[in-house]
Write a structure and sequence with these properties.
It holds the Pfam family p450. The longest helix is centred in the first third of the chain and has 32 residues. This protein has eight helices and eight strands. A two-stranded antiparallel ribbon has the order 1-4. The chain has a two-stranded antiparallel sheet with strand order 2-3. The termini are far apart. Helix 2 crosses helix 5, helix 2 packs parallel to helix 8 and helix 4 packs across helix 8.
């Protein structure tokens, strides 16, 4: 915010409405979505210990072979971690829909959308279409092998939107989520506890929020 205020100093200044808009943007897009993604991923790992063990094995092996590697480099190279996170973002999409304005009149699938019309892209619905995702409510990181992705429509998975107006913070959000998971899973495991529900009760607004939070057990690794 200080940098924004500095950039808009002089003749052009931010008014209170713009300041409020930027603040909400930072809170929802820059904090809540990443926090929720971490919550959903820890829940999925707790409910799927076989996936968690495979992920921990990948992390352990990588840092044993590359003890001096930076967390940034590790985040780029851990393939199964990337697959797990992509599948988590598919099952529990942080922003369930995005809105756009049609820039010119176009006909899609026999439906004419006039210039200036509002268009809603239901990302969460797309992420659960069975023609792209067999058994769509199952947690299966193997959906994101190189081969599987090559054989699927590229727009079937877009948790950060798509194109020139996709989420500006996508790379940073993925990086901080991966680093957090790496650091935790090197020392701890997640497990289902007495308050961990079999299914999460979700509330969908601007973001997808778990009602009542997400509860799992955190167990130190031996």
């Amino acid at each position: 915010m200080q940098q924004l205020m500095k950039n808009f100093s002089g003749t052009k200044k931010l008014d209170s409405e713009q300041m409020a808009g930027f603040s909400v943007d930072f809170l929802l897009a820059g904090y809540e979505t990443t926090a929720n993604t971490l919550s959903y991923t820890t829940y999925l790992l707790a409910m799927n210990p076989d996936v968690q063990e495979k992920l921990q094995a990948e992390i352990d092996q990588y840092f044993e072979e590359e003890p001096e590697i930076s967390l940034y480099e590790a985040a780029q190279n851990l393939k199964y971690l990337d697959m797990v996170l992509k599948e988590s973002l598919r099952l529990y999409t942080p922003v369930p829909k995005v809105m756009r304005q049609c820039s010119k009149t176009v006909t899609v699938g026999g439906v004419t959308i006039p210039e200036g019309a509002g268009v809603v892209i239901p990302i969460d619905v797309i992420h659960h279409l069975p023609q792209y995702w067999p058994d769509p409510y199952k947690f299966d990181p193997e959906r994101f092998t190189v081969e599987a992705e090559a054989n699927r429509h590229q727009l079937a998975h877009m948790p950060f939107g798509w194109g020139p107006r996709s989420c500006l913070g996508m790379r940073f959000a993925l990086l901080e989520t991966k680093i957090a998971l790496m650091e935790i899973l090197r020392k701890y495991s997640f497990a289902r506890g007495p308050e961990t529900p079999a299914l999460l009760d979700l509330e969908r607004g601007f973001t997808t929020v778990p009602k009542g939070g997400v509860y799992v057990k955190i167990i130190p690794r031996k």
